[in-house]
Predict the 3D structure of the following.
Amino acid sequence: MTSEQLFESIAYLDPALLESSERPAKVKHLLRPVAAAICIGTLAAALLLPILHSTNNLSNGDMTTSSGQEFTLTFHSVQSLEDSQKNFFYITGEPLSNDPIRAVFPDDLPEELAITSATAEYFGWGELYQLRLEFKNPSWGGKTTLLIYRVDRTSSPSDEAASPLSDNGTEPTAYEYIDEENGTCLLWAAVTRDGVTFRAYANTDTANIDQAKADMTTILGSYSDSKDVSHLLPADRGKTGD
Amino acid sequence: MTDEQIIELYWQRDESAISETNSKYGAYCRTVADHILHSAEDSEECVNHAWLRAWNVMPPQRPRALKLFLAKITRNLAFDRFKAQSAKKRGGSETDLILSELEQCIADGTDVEEDYIAKELGAAINQFVSSLPTKERHLFIRRYFFAESVSEIAKKYAMTNNYVSVKLSRIRKKLKNISPRRVISHDK
C-alpha cells in the first residue's frame, strides 16, 4: 500500500462525517468577546455607511469609513455573457456539415433513423468534449440522442462504479427510469469500443417505450459493431480560452 | 435553487443542471481542487471535468449530499491530475507533504492483495474517523480529505499551527494501527 492509495481511500469517507466538518467551526469561549466586538463593529459600519455615503457623495465603488479606512469594490468588465462563459464546461457546439455527418453514420443504420442534428462540442479551452447526434424516427416521432466521446477525457481509473457501462466496458448496459405519475420514461445506455464511448438517451411517453428501446438498441448496435470507430471524433480545435 | 432541484435537472437531462451547479458550487469545488493542485488554471479545468463526471453519473446516482458528492468527484479528479503531474516532477508541494505524512501511517510489510486492501481500507478508515473525538475528526478531514494546509486549519478552528500539527501527528499514529492486515484479522 502507498500513501497515494491511502489518500485515495479517504475519498470514501461517509458523507455524513464530511458534512460535520463543513459546519462553521465554533469560536472558542475566550474569543467570544472579540467576536461580539466584531459583530458590533460590523453592525455599526452597516448603519454608518449609508449615512457617510449620502453625505460624502463618493463615486461608485469607493468610499471612506469613519475610521478613515478605504473600502473599495473592483468591478471587472465583461464583454458579453458569452465571453464570460468561454472557459466554462463546454461552449455552444458547432454544427457539423454533411460530410462529417456522413463520416459518423454507420453503414448498417436503417435509413428511417435520420440524423436531425449533429454537433461537435468543445471544452472552453478548445479540447473536444463530445459529438452529439440527434436521431428521429419519423414512423413514431421519437427522438434518440447519441453522445460520442473518448473515455480517457471524461473518466478516470479512480471513478466510483457509477458509469452506465458494464464492468468490462464493452457490453452495453441500459437503464430506464419510469415516472409513473407523469407517464414518461427516461432510457439511457452506453457501450465502449476501442476507447470511444457511445452513450444514448431518450425521453418519451411510457406508451412508446418499446419503440424507443428498439431505436436505441439499433443505434447503439450499429455504432458498436462498426469496424473502425477511431475516425468518429473530429480533432481538437486548439486553445480558445486564451 | 435547492440541491434536490439541481439533481432533478440532471435526471431530466437538462443541461442547465451544469450552470446551476457551477453557480452554486463552482467556487467551492475550485477551492477543493486548488488545495491539491495549487494552480488556478488546473483547478478550473479540473472542476469543468467534475461537471462532466457529475453529468455522466446522474442518473443513475442520486446523491444524498450534492455538495460533498461534487467535492469527492473534484478531489478524485484533482488527485489524478496531481499524480500525472507528479510523474514528471516530484516533491515540494503541500500535497506532497500530505502524502509524506500519510506514509507514516502505513504499517510495514503489508503484503495482502491490493484489491482486498482497497476495499477494506475505505471501510476501516470510515470506522477510524467515526471513532475520533469531534475536534480530531474535523482536523483529520480538513487535512486529509480537503488537503487544507495546517495554517488554514489552525485559522478555521482558532488554534495555533503547532497545536494542529501535534494533534495530526497523534491521529496519524492511531491511524497506523488500522492497517489493512489488522482489518482483515478482525474480520476473520
User: Anything to note?
Assistant: Confidence is low (pLDDT under 50) at residues 181-188 of chain B. Chain B touches chain A through 63 residues (CB under 8 Å).
